[in-house]
Design goal:
CATH superfamily of the largest domain: Tetracycline Repressor, domain 2
Distance between the termini: 54 Å
Helix content: 40-55%
Largest sheet: 6 strands, mixed
Shape: globular
Structural class: alpha/beta
Mean pLDDT: 81
Strand order of the largest sheet: 2-3-4-1-6-7
Radius of gyration: 23 Å
Number of domains: 3
Number of helices: 23
CATH topology of the largest domain: Tetracycline Repressor, domain 2
Low-confidence stretches: 79-84, 189-200
């Protein structure tokens, strides 16, 4: 059966569709079971595997269907509202779409919002599914470079998309409450904002024993010494960097690989270390993502010019885990030999090979964590949020406990909000499980 027929094959059997929807609504990708789906739908196992190769095949069929529904809802509502492309209207359309997807079917909403943030699901969606609406809108948001604090706004919006307030979602006057939320997000000139003291974290370089220094923040309300070049700013001023790269290269050639080779050849000193920029896996990633190519060309320029202080702030969130992995593995090590580098983020993948990370607590104190210990403790563990006696609880199950833990029994006994596989370190995970605040 051809790939494009898989969604149709799923929709042709209502019981199979219903069981698939429920299974992926209740569980992250890693815990979802095709055997459970087959059992609950009373579907013939042979017929199932004739139509679907595996769990991923089934998941892609479901996600493609839901993502198309979501995009259709967005286009219909947006056309009716005839809203302009200003930032406030774009945010309204984005979150209003979540509301209408929830009204269409709460399980549609749950599957889409949960799996866009589940690491295993996200990789499959990015490689196999149509481009989600969220990705398309976030790209638009990131183009508003003239808006004050747009990088902060994008981060907040992305976090809200994952955990949109139920109080607003179920509001009797959704439009009014959503408008109020958006105005709050965009309020950058009010007295309250002006009077508020921004977090000013002073980084003492002597305390940061590692280079690069990986610093985990609760949010992105921070300031850095002026001597640090912001990679995020450079990314959105790429034309300026490109002109400077032209001068170094004598002429600008569109082929990324040729640019790197030419710089190695024309360098006044041994620049063979730049070969890392044309590692086979990196070249593949560059061919698939023009934005990643732009990002690496800026990094290439900073490497060649031996820029002394660089901060990677937020721009890495634009790229997939695989693209980040390549950057951490091949590019950052050679850059850190000539530059002091601070990587600021709200989360870090547990699959990266780091030595140490630093966490900013609520008192603006920097605490160091041994990354290998965190990796051992959290990688492939699960975190469950659930209701019990009208109270929300969080339970963390380590990878060693997973083998004996009865997930199905726990799900039946408690009202589950979400089950997530912990494959990244984020501020909230640490504050829930480490005594350092």
């Amino acid at each position: 059966m051809k790939k494009e027929d898989k969604t149709q094959a799923l929709l042709e059997n209502p019981a199979l569709f219903s069981a698939t929807l429920q299974e992926f609504a209740d569980k992250p990708y890693g815990l979802a079971s095709t055997n459970e789906i087959i059992k609950k739908s009373n579907y013939n196992k042979g017929s199932f595997y004739y139509r679907f190769d595996n769990k991923q095949d089934l998941f892609v069929a479901l996600m493609d269907y839901l993502l198309v529904i979501q995009i259709d809802i967005y286009n219909q509502r947006r056309n009716k509202s005839s809203s302009s492309e200003d930032l406030e209207n774009l945010l309204f359309d984005m979150f209003s779409n979540l509301y209408h997807l929830y009204k269409e079917n709460p399980l549609y909403y749950k599957v889409v919002t949960n799996h866009l943030y589940d690491n295993e699901s996200k990789i499959i969606i990015e490689n196999e599914c149509i481009e989600p609406l969220k990705y398309r809108i976030l790209k638009k948001l990131q183009s508003y470079t003239n808006i004050l604090n747009i990088n902060h706004i994008v981060t907040l919006v992305d976090n809200l998309y994952q955990s949109f307030p139920k109080k607003i979602l179920l509001s009797s006057d959704f439009n009014k409450d959503l408008t109020g939320l958006i105005k709050f997000l965009l309020a950058d000139n009010s007295e309250t904002i002006n009077d508020k003291k921004s977090t000013n974290i002073v980084f003492d370089e002597f305390k940061l024993t590692e280079n690069p220094a990986y610093i985990l923040l609760q949010d992105n309300d921070f300031s850095l010494p002026e001597k640090y070049i912001s990679m995020f700013d450079a990314f959105f001023n790429f034309k300026k960097i490109r002109k400077k790269l032209c001068k170094l290269n004598f002429n600008f050639i569109s082929s990324y690989e040729v640019i790197v080779k030419k710089l190695i050849k024309k360098s006044f000193k041994n620049a063979n270390y730049l070969i890392n920029f044309i590692h086979d896996d990196i070249l593949k990633a560059v061919r698939l993502n023009k934005e990643y190519k732009k990002f690496l060309l800026i990094s290439l320029y900073y490497t060649v010019t031996e820029t002394p202080y660089i901060t990677y702030d937020l721009v890495l969130k634009r790229f997939s885990q695989e693209e980040n992995m390549l950057f951490y593995q091949h590019i950052l090590p050679i850059m850190s030999k000539t530059s002091k580098i601070i990587v600021l983020n709200t989360e870090f993948s547990l699959y990266f090979k780091l030595k140490q990370i630093y966490v900013i607590n609520s008192y603006n104190e920097i605490k160091a964590f041994d990354y290998s210990i965190l990796q051992t403790k959290y990688l492939n563990s699960y975190e469950i949020e659930y209701y019990k006696q009208n109270t929300i609880f969080t339970k963390t199950i380590s990878s060693s406990e997973c083998l004996d833990f009865d997930f199905n029994k726990f799900i039946k006994q408690n009202k589950i909000i979400v089950i997530r596989k912990i494959n990244k370190i984020d501020y909230d995970t640490l504050t829930r499980n480490e005594d350092f605040i």
